[in-house]
Amino acid sequence: MDVLRQIFENRMITSPALAWVAAQVLKTLIDGLRHRRFNPRFLIGPGGMPSAHSALVCGLAAATWLSQGVDSAAFAISAALAAVVMYDAAGVRQAVDRQSEILVHILTHVPRTHDDFDRFLEGLVGHTRLQVLAGALLGVAVAALLH
């Protein structure tokens, strides 16, 4: 049990983990308010506002900065990781999403209802730049609150 206590007291683990949880809960609430229904997919799934990936890596980078300083090798590594993850989330994955939408449209010949279209696109994995920025700010905020 001593190991579990050490893990839960380690801000380098708790900051990014709590940032990820906060982002998942927020995106579930935002989607619920927007569509007036609860969609449990957002509690663990990718996509949506804010980006949980960005929240996690920025929570790690901010916790590293606050714990070890901006001039540490660990901060440099975590900041580089955050940059790659956020670039991927906003760039590459967004392009994949657009291609997925086009393919689904072609294969389904225009779905009958909006819900049909949503069901076909549940596999979306990308984020807009605003979603990535919101996730990044959330991650930094959670790390700052914990430190």
Q: What brief labels describe this structure?
A:
147 residues; single chain; mainly alpha
Q: What does this protein look like?
A:
By secondary structure, this protein is mainly alpha-helical. It is built from 7 helices and no strands. Helix 4 (52-68) packs parallel to helix 7 (129-146) and helix 5 (73-108) packs antiparallel against helix 7 (129-146). The longest helix has 36 residues, at 73-108. The radius of gyration is 17 Å and the shape is elongated. It starts with a helix and ends with a helix. The mean pLDDT is 83.
Strand content: under 5%
Major β-sheet profile: none
One letter per element, helices H and strands E, the order comes to HHHHHHH
Weakly predicted, low-confidence segments: none
Shape: elongated
Radius of gyration: 17 Å
Distance between the termini: 24 Å
What is the arithmetic mean of pLDDT? Answer: 83
Number of helices: 7
Tell me roughly what share of residues is in helical segments.
Answer: over 70%
Number of strands: 0
Supply the helix-strand structural class. mainly alpha
Task: Explain briefly what this protein structure is.
The chain is mainly α and 147 residues long.
Q: What is the secondary structure topology, with strand pairs?
A:
Layout: H1 2-9, H2 11-35, H3 41-44, H4 52-68, H5 73-108, H6 114-120, H7 129-146
